[in-house]
Amino acid sequence: MLVTARLRPPDRVVEVADVGRVADLLARLEVLPGAVLVIRDGALLTSQDELRDGDKVEVRFAISGGSGGLMQPKAVAPRWIGGV
Amino acid sequence: MIEVRRHNAAFCRDCFFHYVGQQVTRAIAKYRMLGHTDRVLVAVSGGKDSLALWDLLLDLGHQADGLYLSLGIGAYSERSKVVCQEFAAARGARLLVHDLAGEHGYTIPEAAGGTGRSSCGVCGLSKRYVFNRAALDGGYDVVCTGHNLDDEAAVLFGNTLRWDTAAMARQFPVLEATRPGLVKKVKPLYRVAERETAAYCVLKGIDYVVEECPLVAGNTQMRHKETLNQMEEAAPGTKHSFLFGYLDRAAELLKVADVADLTECARCGMTTQAPEDPAAEAVCAFCRSKARLTRTLPIVQVGAG
Fold it and tell me: Is the pTM of this model over 0.95?
């Protein structure tokens, strides 16, 4: 089970394996849920919404000027695959 | 569905629009920010807060024009201007565009290196000056800015850490026009968190500039926001309580500390603080900053070949 997350700003893309819900994804990314919007197909997701294999979501930081608590990617996962 | 943890609530799309509109209506009513006959100028940057505010004020029936100030921050400023122009066109609203370099001879990246102020400091100073002047020149009754709950809580946090009581006394959702030369300034979004303004734009289909200003990295206010967000995560409602507690119980007490003696700037005629020495020339911070820049910036010969 693999989810592709586009994080911005700044713009970068990461693949995360084995995350059942949005809350799990944000925890793996070390992002504060209160600092972001999670968007799938133009709809906002809540932290309890389920994710599906192959989902592409946007994790948009809603806090001007801040990383919202995002630190460096973890050593093993998620897998960072690009930045713009 | 959008969660608003500080209210322990979740809203569907329509109820969320109602909630945000209600927060803005309450803010306007509580502090008598706007009347329906007022000519309103909304300072827009292309970001989520100012565009959400403009959209809300138009929906509430206010005569609200937008004002965009180009700061000369390369592609970021160009994109911001286009976003504001497209929003105005889509809403059939009037947008005034001012240009810092064209009207005052400098850009923010140039100013950051030449005034001794941080880029955010000189940007804020320039915006306050241009907004006030544009509102006066255009005959507007009030200037609205998109400061939200998170902005206000972070500024209050910084001011409190320094016990800067003079700055705290001026931090209020309304700054009245206390003398000729000053236009009333209001912050109708002070009850709305910035995650909520972002959600409002996404749900309304408002295209806003998601990218950050490239000059903002390391900004103190942003570090304060991150600290408050950590606290908010552990205890939802912390920012709300901090800001609203201050406004309800402390702000009035501090207002007496703000007894600045005001006069006219000898160079531009705008309102400024009177110098302590009565014999000294009163020159506003904007004119002082501009004069320092004029001395610092290289002279470019136009048309030299």
Answer: no
